Amino acid sequence: MNKLKGFSSIGLLVFLMGFASFSNANDINGPQQVIQDTSDLLYEILKNNKEKLNDRDYIFQLVNEVLEPRVDLDKISKLVLGKYWRKASDEQKTQFQKEFKGLLVNTYATAFNEFEEWTIHFLPMTLDPTKTRVSVKTEVIQASRPPVAVNYRMAVNKAGEWKAYDVIIEGISMVTNYKASFAKTIKKAGGLDEVIQQLAEKNRQSEEASSQLALDEASNES
């Protein structure tokens, strides 16, 4: 995951399709429209609720209401665990998804607080109606920084909805990085349960830190 850390403030928010204005949004297709619409919605919510961005419960709410309907968590879970997903019990799958979602929420909470405005430029693409998976190529443009190449991997479900399941930042896939990290832990510990336990512990610590921060802020205001 080390290579990805340099893009945390941009890449993770981009994976959320997060708060950017689009420089060429007049002629976009279905998958691009999903990114556009989610971006617009998140931008307005976060711009008007900056005081809540340290509230983990509020971030969970945003994920549930805004992001989860547009991100394929099932597909992401299958991809990051690979063969271990196929071998997992139903209970393990449920627990992993719960804790993995918690991990993403923690990361999103950090990224939300690093918000800086930028522009996303869609690169030309032709949408083949027979294809169920596409790569949406974009460039993230910020003041005084070189453009960052960001590609979304998206798939259409049976209901005809396009959802994101990976983001590739300057050639680095977030799914591939998570997959390598989890595989290493599973091999070392001898099973998926250890990964779930580690995620649960990290999430517990994050919840405690968030609760303490909220108490400290309330104390300072009183």
Question: What is shown here, in short?
Answer:
This protein has 222 residues and is an alpha+beta fold. Helix content is 56%, strand content 15%.
What does the model show?
- By secondary structure, the chain is an alpha+beta fold.
- It has one domain (2-217): Tgt2/MlaC (Nuclear Transport Factor 2, Chain: A).
- It has nine helices and six strands.
- A hairpin with a 2-residue loop joins strand 5 (162-169) and strand 6.
- Helix 7 (90-112) runs parallel beside helix 9 (192-221) and helix 8 crosses helix 9 (192-221).
- The chain is globular and about 45 Å long.
- Residues 1-14 and 16-21 have low confidence and may be disordered.
* Poorly predicted runs of 5 or more residues: 1-14, 16-21
List how many beta strands DSSP finds: 6
Count helical runs. 9
Assign the CATH superfamily: Tgt2/MlaC
Strand order of the largest sheet: 1-2-3-4-5-6
Structural class, please? Answer: alpha+beta
What is the CATH first-level class name? Answer: Alpha Beta
Shape: globular
Could you estimate the helical fraction of the residues in percent? 55-70%
